[in-house]
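ok posting inputs for the 6-hydroxymethylpterin-diphosphate job
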Amino acid sequence: MRVTALAGEVPAALASVLAARGLDPVRAEALAAGGAQVALLLEPLDDADALPLVREAGAAGVDCHTGDGWAVVVGTLARLGGLARGGGASRLPERLSAELGRFLSDRQEQPEAWRTARRSIPLARSCVVGILNVTPDSFSDGGRHFGPADALAGARAMREAGAAVLDVGGESTRPGAATPDEAEELRRVVPVVRALAAEIALPISVDTRRGRVAEAALAAGAEIVNDVSGLTHDPRMAGVVRDAGAGVVLMHMRGDPATMDAHATYGDVAVEVAAELAARRDRALEAGIARDAIVLDPGLGFAKRPEHNFAVLDRLASVTALGHPVMVGPSRKRFLGAASGAAVDRRDAATAAACVAARIRGARLFRVHDVAGAREALAVADAVLGA
Ligand code: HH2
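and the output
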């Protein structure tokens, strides 16, 4: 007899071993998915819930660690599903089993496409989002695409390089940047969106926190709203997105660009970012935005010190488990300089490396300045992951 370790992610390795041994591939994949090992933090938890949880977890073959007001359950998805469903003998309190069941079914979603106001963007392979800042002061490309003619030239180059989406922004959100007034932001963004929509034939996203700017950009041909405030800055924004049927990126940040650095304190950054994004997602759903229109973004560099950004990337599963496609925007940011020592104008290799790390941890959309470099690196990552 020979023992061979099944390399790689357990579900993928198990599915291919079972299929290679004659099992129907769909059944092999379903069986293998149930074998994935996950750990879930349940918090806050009162004693009335903790005691039955410990008992039922033991009966379901799930490990359970508890402390003051929290529990962590660890087991295969199949066993955690069994714990949530209960079956005849289970005595899990109703609220607990409902919440666990909802989480597990959301986690199962892992959508393969993103619905926007005009189409469905496939996400089986990595999707590169080209950054087109029509600002005089963005930290890396400020001034380069300021007028429609320069923006069009930049957009054509990004399309040639393999961008799947173009993200147009008229406000720099770097710490300390001056906020343009609404009329100025409209003047910067709308003519560029109109020119791109007429010529470029790629989905256009507008990077704004203002409902009126989003509305005007959507009317001019944009189909996605990328809101770094996660719909919290402008109370009109959720209605604008809903009424247009637009795709939306909900990004994590604390405070606003002027104050965010003072909010970069976390006990457990991955858990807190995922919980705060889940709350923003729930508010978007309550406002009537469709589930398959929502993409989540952990907001690299926003209210996060370098070590927070690396931890969020490594533990991105806390965000992907919410069941929405995940976007990351590491491009040329300070935390990459902290790891590589490279200056802002020499961070494209570090950006590509961060994109690949995020791809391996489950991200599907990558917001970058250097589209060609990210596309090339992600093509290799996609091939390794069998996309
Ligand atoms: N980062 C920036 C702006 N918008 N949107 C999303 N979804 N995710 C991000 O990480 C993100 C974003 C900041 O980068 P940049 O646009 O390059 O610079 P500036 O804000 O100075 O224009």
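notes: Residues 10 and 36 are 6 Å apart (CA to CA). The radius of gyration is 22 Å.
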